[in-house]
Amino acid sequence: MQFLRTIDAGLEVVFNVLILLSSVFMTGLVFFLVLSRYFFGSSMIGTLEMATICALWLYMLGCIMASKRTEHLTVDIVETSIKNPMTIALYETSRSLIVFGLSVFVLFLAKDMLDWSLRRPQITPALGLPLMLQQASMLIAAVFFVIYGLRDIFRALALFQNQQGSA
After folding, report:
1. What is the helix, strand, coil percentage profile of the chain, to 5?
2. Could you give the CA distance from residue 141 to residue 145 in angstroms, rounded to a whole number?
3. In the beta sheet, which residues pair with residue 130?
4. What does the alpha-carbon distance between residue 74 and residue 82 come to, in Å, rounded to a whole number?
């Protein structure tokens, strides 16, 4: 179990670095795009494509981190109003099952998108970059959604089991 925690901590560092880099590149590219349109009256070819790729990676990496920290699909008023430990365990279990189900659905959509891309490779119009650069972020995010969804199910079931054991 400690080995998995070490891997998870290492991935968090990698994801945070990638989030920082994609933020810097996206901001810089959009800034450059605005300046070039303002001063030169036209944009540099491919700048928007690169900014879009950076933005998509930023969004998906942010979603992975939110999933890791269980900061998704929360209804704060429900969480703060529940006081009974058994009800909390039931709520956490049902929430984690819903998130896991949606994660599996997203994973299948990402797999279908990958299958389509492999059969009919597409490129961006200006730079000719493969669209797989963008789509890879969605596939990687979907895989991590499923992994963290499973983790949340086990955590929630452990909560439920602890409440049954103490009753």
Report:
1. 80, 0, 15
2. 6
3. 123
4. 13
Nearest to 140 by CA among 60, 23, 50: 60
Residues 6+ apart with CB under 8 A from 141: 60, 61, 63, 64, 110
Q: Which residue has the tokens 């990958």?
A: 114
- Alpha carbons 150 and 47: distance in angstroms, whole number: 39
3-state secondary structure of 130: strand
pLDDT tens for each residue of 102-111: 999 999 999 9
Residue 98: other Cβ atoms inside 10 A: 12
Question: Cα(118)–Cα(120) distance, rounded to whole angstroms?
Answer: 6
Cα 29 from Cα 9, distance rounded (Å): 30
- What lies within 8 Å, CB to CB, of 122 at 6+ separation is 130, 131
The size of the chain, in residues, is 167
73-87 pLDDT, tens digit per residue, is 666 787 788 888 888
Number of Cβ atoms within 10 Å of the Cβ of 145: 26
What pTM did the predictor assign?
0.87
CA–CA distance, 76 with 80 (Å, rounded to integer): 6
